[in-house]
Amino acid sequence: MTLLSIAAAVGILILLIAAGRVPPFVAFIISALAAALMLGLPLEQIPKSIEIGIGGMLGPLSIIIVLGAMFGKLIADSGAAERISQSLIRLFGERRIPLAMALTGFIVGIPLFYNVGFVLMVPLIFSVVYRSKLPALYVGIPMLAGLSISHGFLPPHPSPAALVNQFGADMGVTLLYGLLVGVPTLLIAGPVFALSLRKVEVTWPSFFKPTELSEANLPSTANSFICALLPVFLIASATVLSYADLAPRTRAVVTFIGDPMIGLLLSLAIGTWTLGVARGMPMKQLMTGYGEAVRDIAAILLIIAGAGALKQIFVDSGANNDLGALLANLPIHPLVLGWLVALVIRIALGSATVAGLTAAGIVAPLVQATGVDPNWMVLAVGAGSLMCSHINDSGFWMCKEYFNLSLADTFRSWSVMETIVGSVGLVLILLFSPWL
What is the 3-state secondary structure (H, E, C) of the chain? Predict the structure, then answer.
């Protein structure tokens, strides 16, 4: 009965979003109410459980996601993203432009929510295409692969950060594991796969013809890279140093600075000065951009809140324990099972974020029941949530329309790239997890 109730609740969620076009937050709340009634939770307790679930999920994450969105907006608006792209292209040369674009997407994608990063980076892709005369998908797909991998694997990006919270993982350790898995995945899904797309014809819209920016309008290379990578450096360094023999006071300082919230706040403050104020950007313009960034990620905050409500219903009704015992007895590796659950929901719903968070609510008991490393489970669910993008995914249509592709070419390029990311990611997770 418990399993049927959980399946019915997830089915209601899928039906509301996919068929009814109900906003995900509302769909999550309705599904949570339905699950509570089917699982026999006392009526007077249901509103309280939903409130606790929303608060418990947003409490640790809201400031990280908001600061990350503001930081990403700064990296894009200041010209740092374009400078990073230019520098990597010069470093790797014209022959290795796909590799440079992949690394640009990977670096810039860490603080940017995926859809925002997509829209901001597409003009940069066509700028490179225009100057290099290379095929658009050959240049563009590696960058989109970098954005996708950051979206699925690397906290403090909103999706993996939310999964870290769901599974009780460590954000710094997950970041290090994500880099370990993400870099080789990026090479395969980006530059290597792009070789098969060189002959795909793309005629881009005229409004993407770039206007050349002078060097004086861009920040320096060092400033751009240091600011863009500073949150990653602070969080990862604190995790590495936590294994060193440090004096108590030094350890406290390292832990404080390496906390994701503090790391992002410091990075935003430093970036606001070095990329903005020190280069003559008016403070009013910077603050307006930050306000726009917060509005852009309001939807993702609501999705995360709704997922927390559904998860709390499973916890308070005791369904999570029953589900954990059931899943633990299945003859499937826990990481593969987490990946499969996310994959099924991704195919049904389209949204990678919703797929990952919904899957996390289902398989979270599996982490406790099997003792599997929660950091690897974050990555496994993240990989599954990226699989098999098709016509119910906004990213699919963005790729099709921005690159002026046919449906067949969109499946051939975008859908295959996303599936390579999810598949190769799982293989590497299974290879590395026994050793770390």
Answer: CHHHHHHHHHHHHHHHHHHCCCCHHHHHHHHHHHHHHHCCCCHHHHHHHHHHHHHHHHHHHHHHHHHHHHHHHHHHHCCHHHHHHHHHHHHHCHHHHHHHHHHHHHHHCCCCCHHHHHHHHHHHHHHHHHHHCCCHHHHHHHHHHHHHHHHHHCCCCHHHHHHHHHHCCCHHHHHHHHHHHHHHHHHHHHHHHHHHHCCCCCCCCHHHCCCCCCHHHCCCHHHHHHHHHHHHHHHHHHHHHCCCCCCHHHHHHHHHHHCHHHHHHHHHHHHHHHHHHHHCCCHHHHHHHHHHHHHHCHHHHHHHHHHHHHHHHHHHCCHHHHHHHHHHCCCCCHHHHHHHHHHHHHHHHCCHHHHHHHHHHHHHHHHHHHCCCHHHHHHHHHHHHCCCCCCCCHHHHHHHHHCCCCHHHHHHHHHHHHHHHHHHHHHHHHHHCCCC
Q: Look at residue 113 in the predicted model and tell me its pLDDT.
A: 67
Token pair, residue 384, equals 């599954």
Global pTM reads: 0.79
Please state, in angstroms and rounded to a whole number, the distance separating the CA atoms of residues 357 and 424.
Answer: 21
Contact by Cβ (8 Å): 206, 86: no
- B/e letters for 371-403, b = 16+ CB within 10 Å, e = fewer, are ebbbbbbbbbbbbbbbbbbbeebebbebbbebb
Which residues fall within 8 angstroms of residue 211, CB to CB, at 6 or more apart?
A: none
Q: How many CB atoms within 10 Å of residue 361?
A: 29
What is the Cα Rg of the chain in Å? 21
pLDDT under 70 in the chain at which residues? 1, 60, 111-113, 115-116, 120, 203-215, 320, 323-325, 328
- What are the residues whose beta carbons fall under 8 Å from the beta carbon of 264, sequence distance 6 or more? 64, 67, 68, 71, 156, 231
Q: Which tokens is 139 given?
A: 């240049």
- pLDDT of res. 212: 52
Instruction: Parse the chain into domains and list their residue ranges.
Output: 2-432
List pLDDT tens digits, range 305-331.
Answer: 888 888 888 878 877 677 666 776 778
Inter-residue contact 291 to 69 (CB < 8 Å): no
